[in-house]
Amino acid sequence: MCSPQHQPDGPQLGTSRRLFLRNAGLVGAAAAAAGVTGAPAAAAQPPSVEARDAEHRRGRPDPDNPRFTLVVMPDTQYLFDDQSIHPEPIEASFRYILDNSKDENIVFMSHLGDLTQNGQKNEFDAISKAFGLLDRSDVGYSVVAGNHDVGSGGNDQRGNTLYLDAFGPHRFRKASTFGGASPDGYNTYHLFRAAGREWLVLALDWRLSAAGFTWAQNVIAQHPGTPVILTTHELVYANHPGDQAHLSGYGQQLWDKLIAGNDQIFLTLNGHYWPAGRTTRRNNAGNDVHLHITNYQNRYYGGAAMIRLYRFDLARNTIDVETISPWVMGQAGSKLNALERQEIELTSDQDRFSVPIDFEQRFSGFAPVPARAARPASRMLIPGTVAYWRFDRTHQDGTPLSDSDQIPDLSGNGNDLVKETVPGSPADALTWSSEHHPDQPGHGSIFFTGHQHPLRGAYLQTVPQAPLNQATFASGYTIEAFFKLPANWNSRNDAWSALLSRWGMSGDANKTGSDPQEPVATLSLSGGPELQWAMYPLNRNDIVTNWSHELPLDTWWHVAVVNDGRHTTMYVDGCPVVRNPSTVANGITTLNMPWMLGGYEYGGKLDQVLHAFIGDVRIVNRALPVSTFMTA
Question: Among 300, 308, 234, 271, which residue's Cα sits nearest to residue 74?
Answer without folding.
Answer: 271
